[in-house]
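Listing S7. Sequence submitted for prediction.
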Amino acid sequence: MAEQRVFFGLRPARATREALLALPRDLGIESGRLQHVDDVHMTLVFIGQVEEACLSRLRELAIGVSGARVELNMDRLEYWWRPRIACAGLSSPPPALLDLQRRLARTLRDAGFVIESRAYRPHVT
């Protein structure tokens, strides 16, 4: 059966995504590979490879988890040696963001899905 790589995330406004992608150029960084503007996101929960038959159930579960609109103050540029990515981070993640992530993770875990176990560290890639 076919599988897909699955994660749930938030997509910043297009102007924000474009501004983030312009940062390396603005800072004079010439190496590396940029994401496509449509791929810039903040992961909330990473699941990994999932059989396509499970996708509709995942959508149903996620639709049941909602939260207030969150303003993200991405005030940090970070470089993670593994997996060698640059990202925009938040010094003080809003409590509403952390709550949304916890509720989504708990909902998916309670439904039997295995999710990434590392502590959540909000960032935009």
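Caption to Listing S7: primary sequence and predicted structure tokens for the chain studied. The chain has one domain: 3-124. DSSP finds three helices and five strands in the chain.
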